[in-house]
Request: fold
Amino acid sequence: MKDFKLAEIFCDKMILQRDIDISIYGEAYRDIELTVELLETKVTYKISKGKFRVEFPAQKATWSTELKVYSENQCECFSSVAIGEVWVAGGQSNMAMYLKDTEAYLKGEPVKESEYIRYYSLGRNLFPNISDYREGYDWVYNKDMAWEVCNENTAPLFSAIGYYFAQILQEQLQVPIGIINCTVGGSNVFCWLPKEIILQDDRINQVYYDYENMIKDIDYKKTEDAYYQYLDSVKAEWYKEEEKDKYGYEVPAVYYKERGHFSFENPATLYKSMSYKIEHFTARGMIWYQGENDATACRSHIYKYGMDALVKYYATQSLNKDYKFCYVQLAPWNEPAATDWQGICNAQREFYLDNPGYPMVTTGDCGAGTDIHPPRKYPVAQRLANAALTIAYNRKAEFTGPIAKDCKYENNMIKIRFIHA
Reply:
């Protein structure tokens, strides 16, 4: 019988964060002594039965090593481990968009292969475990895509922004780069927050109260049956080869949006099923591209507070006192139904003015008319990389266009002051 289980993200080819204490976490099945070995450092910890987390001393960048984690009765040894820079790529479909679907790739741009750019993708699920689904629906559960080296076979299913961001960082920093993809198309910012964080924040807790009021009169059993009927239809479609290719061979079972208990848009849903798994993984910070869903839901009046709660929560959980956060202001979208699009863009602007340490990149030149998914992702990634280089690595690089700071009416004129002009 095993003594412990590490979180799934600890596997061969992983990239660990340099120069910051490294969190090692998982579950112990009994009280044990757990030893961790990495490079020349070895530390033994006393672990109690249950969930555990230990902090291993910070290490310098290295291209290839082994990580050993062992107890008296069990040894887990991971090979081809690198130590460098790790960033979480979070948000919805514009961050999730595959490299294979970008304008540059479709025009024949070759993949830049690198053994030391690696990518980990969280499986998109409505529930955290296979056992949470009805019997016979194991096929619905998407396992995480383990750490993959960037090459012409794997990169097409990388986040395009994550791919370009990593390429630029490695070129500048000359260390291994790891990207953790934590995205679901159509998600709102409140999907990614724990229930208790939402409820304790008076600025945003109405979102959860609205959800509870919405479901209180909905028949759970009927909603559940409808969800599984939806899954049956997904299975019938997904096994068609063209659909498999569309979704990157991942079962698209999470995208159920009917009002009720089984919508991924419900507050805290994607935190419970996805992001909780990597909240403790040590990273330099997060790049974030999201807001489209909140624009169509008319949440601009609370959106910046949702962002504030998100950043503070993940910074606290990572134990990185200098957690970085770089984000994208939405690109223009010519859609009459997007009545709060400008409101979200303004909320994102206000968040940056309130938090200049969290840079916002503008994308006013990257829109694609009526297409909510602009196919040019390199400019967005380049600006995010410049933002990261500026705030995390002391390498100043302009990352945004002019941003309106304030305005006033004077002498029959409206005067607007800009930063980054």
